[in-house]
Design goal:
Layout lengths: L4 E9 L2 E6 L2 E7 L1 H11 L4 E5 L11 H10 L4 E4 L5 H10 L3 E4 L1 H5 L2 H10 L4 E10 L2 E6 L4 E6 H11 L3 E6 L11 H10 L4 E4 L5 H9 L5 E4 L1 H4 L5 H10 L13
Parallel strand pairs: 1-4, 1-12, 4-5, 5-6, 6-7, 7-10, 10-11, 11-12
Antiparallel strand pairs: 1-2, 2-3, 7-8, 8-9
Length: 257
Amino acid sequence: MVTKRIIPCLDVKDGRTVKGTRFVALRDAGDPVALAKQYAAQGADELVFLDISATEERRKTLLSLVEKVAREVNIPFTVGGGIVSTQDVRELLEAGADKISINSAAVKNPELINELSQAFGSQCIVVAIDARKILNDWVVHIQGGKIPVNRKLFSWSLEAQERGAGEILFTSMDHDGTKSGFAIDALEKLNRLLTIPVIASGGAGHPEDFLRVFRLAGSDAALAASLFHFGVVSIPDLKLFLKNNGIPVRPAQNNSI
């Protein structure tokens, strides 16, 4: 049986982990290196590191910080932010990343997905999609959620898959930071449409939210930030809750589940 993945996310700005609500009102959440080490020790299945201001500031992801995080974790490590070329990806992989995440650059230049998947393998390429529901349609946004574009969530996800994406990381901007639960309906449709794994993001506030996204939406993985950063629930306790409710998960290192 394929286990479901629990993935903490480190949104990094100016070298610090931050977290907001619906992509605004950011507040400090701690040192990314210390948090990464903590989550790996607790039994997180993977870790996502997003340099959230790299694209807006037209610069590359902070390689030195990626290297520091990579030295502290022994789990798959995805890095995103400011990636626009195969050279950017090569540098991140050499710095210790296992996978890379592209978002705005893929929307602006979809051929980039083809290039990167051909160069590094689709298993290395995560296409992140930030979308908000506008007039009953999920509209894709870029530049850290600031700019809506003429692309819709489901058609863009299918195109990304066809171009060689290995996973889709979908963040509901409407749910982000609200602790009101994941966008179950949209995620359920995504999982029916696609053959590649879908990572659910945006809205986790309680262990029950993870149970719902795995049971009702069929997501392969669920990502959360503030829930873990601010101590609402620990990864071992979350995994124990999921296991007790029939969801297959890998054992947490600090909990005998």
